[in-house]
Amino acid sequence: MIKNLLFGLLFFFSVNAFSQQTYTVTYNSTSNVTCDIGDTLKFYGTIPGFYGVSIGSSVVIAPHACNTSPYYIGYYVVVSGDNTFGINGTWNGTITVNPGVGLSYTKQQSNKISLFPNPFTSLLKVSSISKAELSVFNITGKSILKQHINEGATELDLSSFAAGVYFIRVGASTYRVIKE
Hints:
Blueprint: H1 2-16, E1 22-26, E2 32-37, E3 40-44, E4 49-55, E5 58-66, E6 72-77, E7 83-87, E8 91-102, H2 105-111, E9 114-116, E10 123-128, E11 132-137, E12 143-149, E13 152-157, E14 164-170, E15 173-179
């Protein structure tokens, strides 16, 4: 038990040692974000309504009602290089990733891994350009799923997992995801 707790703390601190930042992106206001791999973008609307977010051509936050101020849409953990974002397909901007910094930057770039949507409710899509070993860890660092993935898109059914923060290791890179 103590061994697992110590491993979990070590894992947690090693993942968080990269000083990840959170940036606010507001509809009709924010047009460009410069950040690092592993940073979080929090998206907000400006008035009550339905909002959704896409990164590149992928929907990462499905359209849903945001009727209570501050009209929080959701968040996205940056997992790859320069991208465009869109809120409701009408407000667009650019995500510029600083070169050579952030959470396992070089490995993520060589593996070209994408995880979406983040946060997710049951299915998490993993896109990779090569075969890899995937492991899911809970917040204590306990390995709760191991799976080989092929190149292309893989859907993970994580509907049986409790809501919370999980870490996904693909090859040598680690990603933080949230289950709602």
